[in-house]
């Protein structure tokens, strides 16, 4: 239930400056504006801008995923609607160490218990209700969220590719500034040569038990802050967190056929988890610059080919550019202006193998100026055409 615990602490709609009923397009637009303003590369050394950049990235990641957004809205509505109220405030503002008690009806509950903080093997309680609501498994199979390592957050960045690189695939270097595993302690948080030890107060469970009247409750262990381990000699470089902010360069392989706005997931390349916990994922949003000749239609490429009227009437073989070199395209005699010719296998590569087609649309190009000889030849052609009985407007307008 760690994501739901964080969702209650943050108003993602407020972070992005959009209404709760904003469309996905409005959310994307708001995110792009804020990300451009807050990106660490534009605000070197500004910790506040960096933190806001992480927040808007997380907000966009949740609110543009229909399933995550549904869960987020349901979770916050459950608390804001009064079914769970904190000290008469109507909505819990945070989770300070698990020591705050919240009220539902007339009974007090610790939020650690609400989210499944019971002793091992206990099962039941509000944790099971939340697990059932969000399809996150039964209570008997749960592992305590406090004793389970906390995964790092997902991050998002952007890159811009040329039309050709997006179609054929490429490798691009990306500079990412984010919390990463400390290189001194390798993410353990302990000084090199030492190791974390099991917390003696909770025996590594991350929880301690207490009684309140006829009920037994468990709460995060204050000695280890619910992690289940103690560090007696912290790493001096990361102060025992196992994480340190640094800038790194990642070579990202962009697959062939990526489209504008597509997100590419890089597993484990996001924010590092605390004390050796798994890292989050990095999502790369791809922007593709338009091409001066080609457009895409799925895996097919479209291009408009300027031709002479004589080439349409008499037929010709014309050289046409592709993403890789050029290809000869045969124009049959008496081809009409605007006809589309198909060249198979010369489009965008498919993930399943092969490639789409190149669709060539012929378009007559009229010269700006003709010399006297060309004008006379055109008049002679016009007379011959009329003499043959051809009338381009014979059935037009009827």
From TrEMBL:
Residues 35-68 are annotated as: Disordered. Its main location: cytoplasm. Residues 11-76 form the J domain. GO terms for molecular function: ATP binding; heat shock protein binding; unfolded protein binding; zinc ion binding. SUPFAM superfamilies: Chaperone J-domain, DnaJ/Hsp40 cysteine-rich domain, HSP40/DnaJ peptide-binding domain. Its cofactor is Zn(2+). PROSITE patterns: DNAJ_2 (PS50076), ZF_CR (PS51188). One of its GO terms (cellular component) is cytoplasm. Residues 35-58 have a biased composition (Basic and acidic residues). InterPro entries: DnaJ (IPR012724), DnaJ_C (IPR002939), DnaJ_domain (IPR001623), HSP40/DnaJ_pept-bd (IPR008971), HSP_DnaJ_Cys-rich_dom (IPR001305), HSP_DnaJ_Cys-rich_dom_sf (IPR036410), J_dom_sf (IPR036869). GO terms for biological process: DNA replication; protein refolding; response to heat. Zn(2+) 1 binds at residues 182, 185, 235, 238. CXXCXGXG motif repeats lie at residues 182-189, 199-206, 221-228, 235-242. Keywords: Chaperone, Cytoplasm, DNA replication, Metal-binding, Repeat, Stress response, Zinc, Zinc-finger. Residues 169-247 form the CR-type domain. A zinc finger (CR-type) spans 169-247. It comes from the Bacteria. The J domain is necessary and sufficient to stimulate DnaK ATPase activity. Zinc center 1 plays an important role in the autonomous, DnaK-independent chaperone activity of DnaJ. Zinc center 2 is essential for interaction with DnaK and for DnaJ activity. Homodimer. Belongs to the DnaJ family. This is Chaperone protein DnaJ. It comes from Gordonia alkanivorans CGMCC 6845. The lineage of its organism: Bacteria, Bacillati, Actinomycetota, Actinomycetes, Mycobacteriales.
């Amino acid at each position: 239930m760690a994501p739901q615990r964080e969702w209650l602490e943050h108003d993602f709609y407020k972070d992005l400056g959009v209404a709760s009923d904003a469309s996905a397009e409005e959310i994307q637009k708001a995110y792009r504006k804020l990300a451009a303003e807050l990106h660490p590369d534009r605000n070197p050394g500004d910790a506040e801008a960096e933190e806001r950049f992480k927040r808007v990235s997380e907000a966009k990641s949740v609110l543009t995923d229909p399933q995550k957004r549904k869960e987020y809205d349901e979770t916050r509505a459950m608390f804001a609607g009064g079914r769970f109220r904190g000290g008469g405030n109507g909505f819990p503002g945070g989770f300070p160490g698990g020591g705050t008690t919240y009220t539902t009806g007339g009974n007090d509950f610790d939020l650690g218990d609400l989210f499944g903080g019971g002793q091992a093997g206990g099962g039941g309680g509000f944790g099971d209700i939340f697990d059932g609501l969000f399809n996150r498994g039964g209570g008997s199979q749960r592992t305590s969220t406090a004793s389970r390592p906390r995964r790092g957050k997902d991050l998002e960045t952007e890159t811009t590719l040329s039309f050709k690189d997006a179609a054929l695939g490429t490798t691009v270097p990306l500079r990412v500034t984010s919390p990463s595993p400390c290189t001194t302690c390798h993410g353990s948080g302990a000084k090199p040569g030492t190791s974390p030890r099991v917390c003696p107060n909770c025996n590594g469970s991350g929880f301690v038990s207490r009684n309140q009247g006829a009920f037994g409750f468990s709460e995060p262990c204050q000695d280890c802050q619910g992690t289940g381990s103690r560090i007696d000699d912290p790493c001096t470089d990361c102060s025992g967190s196992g994480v340190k902010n640094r800038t790194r360069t990642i070579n990202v392989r962009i697959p062939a056929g990526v489209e504008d706005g597509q997100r590419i997931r890089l597993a484990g390349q996001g924010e590092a988890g605390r004390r050796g916990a798994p890292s989050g994922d990095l999502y790369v949003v791809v922007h593709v610059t338009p091409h001066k000749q080609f457009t895409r239609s799925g895996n097919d490429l479209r291009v408009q080919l300027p031709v002479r009227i004589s080439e349409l009437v008499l037929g010709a073989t014309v050289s046409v550019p592709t993403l890789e070199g050029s290809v000869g395209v045969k124009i049959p005699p008496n081809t009409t202006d605007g006809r589309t010719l198909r060249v198979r296998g010369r489009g965008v590569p498919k993930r399943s193998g092969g490639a789409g087609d190149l669709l060539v649309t012929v378009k007559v190009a009229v010269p700006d100026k003709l010399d006297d000889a060309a004008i006379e030849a055109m008049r002679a052609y016009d007379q011959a055409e009329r003499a043959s009985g051809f009338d381009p407007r014979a059935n037009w307008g009827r």
